[in-house]
Q: What sequence folds into this?
């Protein structure tokens, strides 16, 4: 009987071992599937959080820096210069406004008005009648005038990039 008991026990052990082996093979398969599902969920959650936070950051940045209203500085009185055109004396009268959004730049423009006016008078007086009688010529003159004003603001210690635009509000040639 002892032999029979041993054989029975051996068979049970073998059956138990086989049962455990099957259970162990089933467990890794289900663990792999669980790991894959968990990885997909975490990855998609991470991607979703990235785009959510990235989009929210843009909105917060826009809300933090509201655009200030434009400030126009009129250079009065109007500029009047004469120049020669085909042996005739011609006159140019120009009224100029400068746009900024920074109150400090507005102060810089007002403090440096004589220097700005001087530089613009020199620039306007060196123009050719044929050049500034075209739209393209006027646009080039406007761009050169803006650069002239920016250089004065820069030399005064201001921020030239904050001088956003220069407009001719009146432009008369005779």
A:
């Amino acid at each position: 009987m002892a032999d029979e008991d041993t054989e029975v026990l051996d068979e049970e052990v073998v059956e138990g071992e086989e049962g455990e082996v099957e259970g162990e093979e089933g467990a890794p398969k289900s663990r792999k599937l669980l790991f894959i599902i968990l990885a997909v969920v975490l990855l998609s959650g991470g991607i979703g959080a990235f785009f959510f936070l990235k989009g929210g950051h843009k909105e917060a940045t826009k809300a933090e820096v509201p655009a200030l209203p434009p400030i126009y500085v009129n250079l009065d009185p109007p500029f009047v210069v004469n120049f020669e055109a085909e042996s005739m004396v011609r006159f140019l009268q120009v009224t100029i406004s400068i746009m900024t959004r920074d109150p400090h730049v507005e102060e810089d423009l007002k403090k440096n008005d004589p220097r700005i006016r001087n530089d613009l008078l020199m620039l306007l007086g060196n123009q050719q009648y044929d050049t500034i009688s075209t739209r393209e010529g006027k646009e080039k003159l406007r761009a050169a005038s803006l650069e002239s004003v920016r250089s004065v603001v820069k030399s005064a210690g201001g921020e030239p990039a904050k001088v956003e635009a220069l407009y001719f509000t009146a432009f008369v040639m005779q």
